[in-house]
């Protein structure tokens, strides 16, 4: 076939080949790791997915835009490729690994194309192989692009999850709640902290709320402002707020920065803050044996 | 004469989002620790960087941070430079006043950052942008307090 009509350009030959050998290519690709790992339930599904990719490649080849990542020919399979990349990314593959898996599709299809020529070493045959190689490289970039997008999505989702996970409000005692803050206290986190703390104050009828910042690495003017706003809001809800865990280096820095935490009740540690809250509520904690021996 | 010290001469970082601010803070902390700054000085440097980088983002509309390791032969230091092509600061003296803010902040970022480092310089032109340069040197006595600049 291809070599009979030498006038046909390499991309056209490749396009016609993809169309004619659609079934064989799809059968081979369905066994390649990429498709096998994504379509784990049914092989038929993998074969169908492979056919769609072959069709898209044929479309791109006939348009002649072999190296254009953004060409319209890829549009029908972009979603599918994106989902595949996402599945691989969720399973722990890096974009580079996914790209490697796409590169693994090249071998089988090149082999089939070379078999089409009685002499695969003629310049024309080589030109066709080169065209298909380029096309497969472009497919790899398309998948890579969607894989990176998928990773960005994943990171964003994890960030959102972290926002919620990292701000638990803990009931320490009847009437006393605490939030151990860990990590960067940006505006989004502060908002969530404030909301969940105020909610807990209402739910638990808390009179004392402890904000522990032992795990906050930097207290700049914005973080300080967030803390002060939270304290003020807690006050409006009828609870007294205690900020604990201000490390010495942070204390020195805050003072030099010019932040006045004078209106905020502070204690060195979470334990000190709890002891304060308990004593204010008339609760005394003592060792059982100490009490016994004193008698 | 100032010259970059051997190990980690300079880094340029984009400032375009909250995540970038976190990255700038982390990089400054890493540089400061490597250069031998004590924990208190590290904390001050990171805090100053946080203030200035946030100003670049919030007031300057984004820009760049440049971190450079210094060595003047006697001691090692760190230079942080924050550059934006934003609106600039019309009245610098006013902006450097404690409590002055045009954006509902505490108004302590610029003036406070200046107190946290040894050398501080603002280069700004209305309509052109702002570059803030802050330098701190490793002080030998761990508890010694940097001057007000
Ligand atoms: N890079 C900049 N570009 C333009 N204006 C700036 C820039 N940096 C600071 N300013 C101006 O200087 C004022 C004072 O800055 P400063 O950092 O001290 O306070 P703030 O950012 O308003 O509040 P915060 O205490 O939260 O930092 C700002 O309100 C702003 O008007
Ligand atoms: Mg500021």
From TrEMBL, chain A:
**InterPro entries in the cross-refs:** Bact_StressResp_Reg, STAS_dom, STAS_dom_sf
Q: Does the keyword Phosphoprotein apply?
A: yes
Q: Does the keyword Secreted feature in the UniProt annotation?
A: no
Q: Which CDD domains match?
A: STAS_RsbR_RsbS_like
Q: Name one Pfam family in it.
A: STAS
Keyword line: Phosphoprotein
The STAS domain extends over 166-277
Domain of life assignment: Bacteria
Species of origin reads Streptomyces lucensis JCM 4490
| Entry protein name | STAS domain-containing protein
């Amino acid at each position: 076939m291809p070599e009979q009509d030498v006038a046909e350009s390499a991309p056209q030959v490749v396009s016609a080949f993809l169309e004619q050998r659609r079934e064989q290519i799809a059968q081979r690709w369905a066994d390649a790791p990429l498709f096998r790992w994504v379509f784990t339930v049914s092989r038929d599904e993998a074969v169908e997915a492979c056919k769609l990719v072959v069709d898209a490649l044929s479309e791109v080849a006939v348009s002649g835009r072999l190296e254009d990542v953004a060409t319209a020919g890829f549009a029908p399979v972009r979603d599918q490729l994106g989902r595949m990349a996402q599945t691989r990314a969720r399973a722990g593959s890096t974009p580079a690994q996914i790209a490697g898996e796409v590169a693994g599709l090249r071998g089988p299809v090149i082999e089939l194309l070379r078999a089409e020529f009685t002499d695969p070493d003629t310049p024309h045959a080589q030109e066709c192989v080169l065209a298909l190689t380029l096309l497969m490289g472009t497919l790899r970039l398309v998948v890579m692009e969607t894989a990176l997008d998928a990773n960005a999505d994943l990171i964003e989702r994890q960030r959102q999850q972290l926002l919620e996970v990292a701000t638990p409000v803990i009931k320490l005692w009847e009437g006393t709640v605490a939030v151990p803050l860990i990590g960067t206290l940006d505006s989004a986190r502060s908002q969530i902290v404030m909301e969940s703390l105020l909610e807990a104050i209402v739910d638990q009828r808390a009179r004392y709320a402890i904000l522990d910042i032992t795990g906050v690495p930097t207290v700049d003017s914005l973080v300080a402002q967030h803390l002060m706003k939270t304290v003020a809001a807690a006050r409006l809800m009828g609870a007294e707020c205690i900020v604990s865990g201000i490390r010495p280096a942070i204390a020195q820095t805050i003072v030099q920065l010019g932040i006045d935490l004078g209106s905020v009740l502070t204690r060195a540690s979470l334990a000190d803050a709890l002891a304060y809250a308990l004593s204010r509520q008339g609760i005394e904690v003592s060792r059982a044996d100490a009490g016994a021996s004193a008698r | 004469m100032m010259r970059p010290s051997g190990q980690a001469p300079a880094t340029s970082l984009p400032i375009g989002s909250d995540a970038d601010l976190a990255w700038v803070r982390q990089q400054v902390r890493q540089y400061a620790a490597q250069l031998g700054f004590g924990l208190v000085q590290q904390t001050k440097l990171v805090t100053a960087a946080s203030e200035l980088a946030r100003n670049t983002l919030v007031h300057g509309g984004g820009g760049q941070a440049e971190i450079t390791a210094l060595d003047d032969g006697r001691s090692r230091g760190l230079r942080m430079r924050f550059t934006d092509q934003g609106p600039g600061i019309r009245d610098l003296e006013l902006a450097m006043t404690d409590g002055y803010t045009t954006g509902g902040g505490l108004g302590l970022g610029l003036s406070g950052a200046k107190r946290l480092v040894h050398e501080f310089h603002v280069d700004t032109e209305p309509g052109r942008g702002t570059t803030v340069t802050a330098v701190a040197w490793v002080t030998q006595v761990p508890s010694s307090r940097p001057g007000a600049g």
